[in-house]
Here is the input.
Amino acid sequence: MTNTKTDPMAGVYGTWKLVRGQSKDPNGAPLPPPYGGAKAIGTVVLTRDGRMAAVLIDGRATLPEGETREYTSYCGAFTFDGETLITRVDACSDPARMDTDQVRKVRFEDDLMILQPPPKDVNGVTYHRELSWRKIADG
Here is the structure.
């Protein structure tokens, strides 16, 4: 991988596959993982011309009764400063996110890019998520 200390943008260009999602409560206790846990499917593409597209879905064949399939997709222009990825959304599966900035903290561990979205409240519980991505193609 390119040295992200000399060129923070260079390390993010390419196509990334979701390899793991984790959720924790504010005290660090594990919560159910996002997008169906081990069956989660996701792809992020970050291009050199500053565009990104992301698709994430719960890949389980069947869901327990009462659960809905978690799905999100969005795209837009992005910036990255070596620590924070900001995407200005211009198309999205969730209309509430249109024309907003989606902010993700980023860190790299070995061959993984780990994105941390802002905390999310679900039924009164605050979820702190981490999504781990492995590069499958250079950009």
